[in-house]
Structure formats: C-alpha cells, structure tokens
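Ticket #4471: structure export looks truncated?
Reporter: QA, pipeline team
Priority: medium

Steps to reproduce: submit the single chain below to the structure queue and open the exported record.
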Amino acid sequence: MRIKITSILILTGMLIGLVTGLVYLSSTAYHVLKTPTPVAVSFDVERDPPAITRGEITFKGVGEIPEILEILDEHGVKSTFFITGRVTDNYPQTLNLISQHGHELAVHGGYYHDQKIRGLGKEKQIEEINKTIFLIENLTGKRPVGYRAPGHQIDSNTINALEELGFRYDSSVVPSLAGFYLYDHKLYAPSFPYNPDYSDPFKGGDMNILEIPLTPVFLNGNLDSLLAYQGQFITKLELIISVVKCKIYRKPLVIYLHPGLMADHPNEPSGYRSGKYLIGEFNEILTFLERLNVRYVTLEEIVEEAEETEEIGIKSQDR
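Actual output as written to the record:
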C-alpha cells in the first residue's frame, strides 16, 4: 500500500513538473514571438547591374528612388541607403530627397562601385573611402557612420580603415554558403551583430566598430533577387523562417535591395522580372512583414540599441 502511494506521489510530482515545464516553455515561446523583431531594409545605390544592362553603364535605378520613398513612407519605414561617391556626385538632388524623408545615408565603397578596395593597404583604403565620405558630408552636413562594401569585398585592412575613419558600423558580411562561395567570406562568421577582431573581420574581437551581418534569407539577404527569380510565394516562406529565427535568437533581420533592379530594363535576362513588377512585389512584402510583428529600424538605430542594451555587439567571443 505504501509503495502504491509513493508511486502515485512520484508520478504526480513528475506530472506537475512536466506541466509546469510546458507552461514555462509556452510562456517563453509566446513572449519571444510576441516581441517585435527589428527589421532593417537597406538599399545599395550604385550603377545599374551590368548583368541587366548588358554591360552598359546606366543609372536608371536612381530615377526609381522617389517612388521607393513613397512606398517606404506608406509603411512608416525608415531605411538605410548605401551610396557610392559617383552617385552622390552626379545625383545630389536624389540624396537630398532621401535625407529629407528621414532615411539614413551611408557609404558604399569609394567613388566607383567597380573599384576594387579589398586587397589595398589600409592607408589607400582610407583614401578611397574618404572620397565618398567627403561628398556625402559636404552635401548633407552630416558625416555618415555606416559602410557596406561593394560586392561585400572586405578584409582586415578594410575594417581597420573604417574604425580609424570613425565609422560606427559595417554591414558587408554575408554569413552563409553564398558569402563563402561568392565573396570569399568565412563560414564561421557570426550571424548576429558583433565587434570584429582587428586581424579578421569575420570573427568576434575587441574592435569598437560593430559588424551587422546581412541575414541569409535563402542565400544572402538580397530581397530583390529573391523576388525577381523566385516570386512572392517562396520568398514569403523564407522570410517567415528568417523572422522566426531572428525572434528566437533575438537578432535583427537585415535585408537589402538595389534600386537598379527596380527600374525597367528592355534587355533584361530571360526569366528575370525587374522594373514595376519588382516595385509592386516590394510593396507587398513590406505589408507581409508587418503581419509577422516586426518593427522597422535603420542600421544606425541597431547600433544605438546595441549600445543601450548591451544585448548585441559581442566582444572577444562568438556564440
């Protein structure tokens, strides 16, 4: 009799423990999913992609920016626009318009998009990047604090040059197989914001600058390519997975687009859908993301939140 009572008590205790655990896990999961995920929608503003223009140098994408700004305004989105020196020099009215709409202007390499900076010495990289800094600051009166390398081409000299120039963040790293195969990035690169190592921009270290990696939605976070090749349905499925992962790991979702792909190009490759189609799809995706309980931020705001909460921006360690 005593054995039966003891067994019942043990089973009851185990059941209570199991129920308590499930309630705790459910409560935690609810809290995680309920918390809005920070989403940074960014744009690389450069010459139109040669693959679309058949090698011709055009800037049709710059002409699409006013419509892009209208869409962003409709959704209450503040974005970060990474600009090359050449675009800044030749389209100052467009940059002023971006700034007037309250968006962040950041640096996208040196004067020319196709100019190779990775592999140069630190001082030479400083010289080239400074050209774009000067143009943006001279035009807007504000020194840019963010950087993204054209083609994601960075090395240790780049990240050291950026810190010496006073940048608060870089957003060039693609922590995925695409980053490894396409851009020679390292597979061990963290997928959350981190402070890089002085000798290796792909691992955590003691630098003051913050690396904000792109979220590898499908492969590399390039939202316009996803929409152009895959269409809206598959892209939405991938975004759901990415948003949930970002909620669980408490990290921002960072995606990017190219205005150059959102312009009409008569000679675009077969099977590729750009222009007005892509602008319409982008509008739909913003509406879809809002249903996933997100909040839109600029990349500079990610840095500010990291400094306030100290929850992201890991020094001297990887997760």
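Status: closed, not a bug. The export was complete when the record was re-opened. Leaving a note from the reviewer for reference: The beta strands are 37-45, 80-83, 104-107, 146-147, 169-170, 196-197, 200-204, 210-211, 253-257, 294-296.
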